[in-house]
Amino acid sequence: MKPTQESLNIAMLGHKRIPSNEGGVEVVVEALSAGFAARGHSVTCYNRAGHHVSGAEHELSAGSVYRGIRLITVPTVERKGYAAVISSFFAALRSAFGKYDVVHIHAEGPAFFSFLPKLFGKRVVVTVHGLDWQREKWNGGFAAKFIHMGERSAVRFADEIIVLSENIRRYFRDTYGRTARFIPNGVSAPTLESPRLIAEKWGLQKDSYILYLGRIVPEKGETYLIEAFRQVKTDKKLVIAGGSSDTERYLKELKTLAAEDERILFTGFVQGRLRDELYSNAYLYCLPSDLEGMPLSLLEAMSYGNCCLVSDIPECTEVVEDKAVRFRKSNVEDLRQKLQTLCDHPEMVDDYKQNASEFILNKYGWDDVVEKTLELYRR
């Protein structure tokens, strides 16, 4: 493609659907696509057919155009491990025959089909949101093997690979000798909300709870958080907010683990004002992950001015630098000690809160992410 400033015709695939808050990939695809459309580019997003992972009641209708983005739905089957494969195949096939300058594929599994648009002369960009084949929910089965093959396909066929952390950039260099481009996720300035709906629904007030908000999957470490919190002496609640993602058995295990502690509350999937209120009024936010790409929920939590407690994996520490508290990955006792210290010392929590929002908004702005991605498209 010629390095001009002319309008580009861009296809996006690999996400579930937009508009949606089903996961970080969907948030990223929507933010990028809307940013491109606002700059005069033509953007088509290939949505997956089927229902929201947390139930049809959470679905949003956008018609065929949303925020200047053209939406096309491709078929799939509602079966764990196969829904993404089938929808990604049809999306890649349609994009191969479309009049696109760039086909941007999100996540390693869908990247297996990067050869299709490449075969028809399209410029292909793949964003690796994380090393998804390592996720425990796939348990080393067909899905994990397919996702790993998608990673190799991206290395072979993609014109550019985008990664969300320096740790994963080094992984591609050391494993494949392939240069990947580091372009992190972004975050927008939020609107702080008073605790109206969460007070009515769950009796939550400002600073009365510790929050985890994200997908309920084993690699996020919710087990460590519940085990540690049960040993913490505090009258604050622990709020676990989020829906399962093909992990219903794991969610049941967490609820069983938490059953004897009435301070632990599961809200299910949240969006809109409920989600904003939970972020706005938390005493602190905890992300105990074993595995991440770039945790968008952590960016969001800091943008709301939260004190954050995170595991010391590089994907978290690169984000927070010295503006959050860390504990040793997978270490329940270290997590318990840090939780107890923060509950006992609100002045420490307040110090972290004062710096969080300004720091994260200056470091990760969506406008900068959109411009860097467009620059990569034009290389």
Structure description:
This protein has an eight-stranded mixed beta sheet with strand order 3-4-2-1-5-6-7-8, with helices on both faces. Helix 4 links the parallel strand 6 (123-128) and strand 7. It has helices at residues 24-38, 83-97, 115-119, 142-157, 166-176, 197-202, 222-229, 248-258, 272-281, 296-303, 314-320, 332-344, 346-363, 366-377; strands spanning 9-13, 42-48, 65-66, 69-74, 102-106, 123-128, 160-163, 181-182, 209-213, 237-241, 264-268, 284-287, 308-311, 325-327. The longest helix has 18 residues, at 346-363. It is an alpha/beta fold and 379 residues long.
> Looking across the biggest beta sheet, what order are the strands in?
3-4-2-1-5-6-7-8
Helix and strand string, N-terminal first? EHEEEHEHEHEHEHEHEHEHEHEHEHHH
Given the helix and strand composition, which structural class is it? alpha/beta
Helix count, DSSP H or I runs of 4 or more residues: 14
Mean pLDDT, as a whole number?
A: 92
* Strand residue content: 15-25%
Whole-angstrom Rg: 20 Å
Number of strands: 14
The share of residues in helices is 40-55%
Q: Could you list the spans in which at least 5 consecutive residues all have pLDDT below 50?
A: none
Distance between the termini: 8 Å
The dominant shape is globular
Largest sheet, strands/sense/barrel: 8 strands, mixed
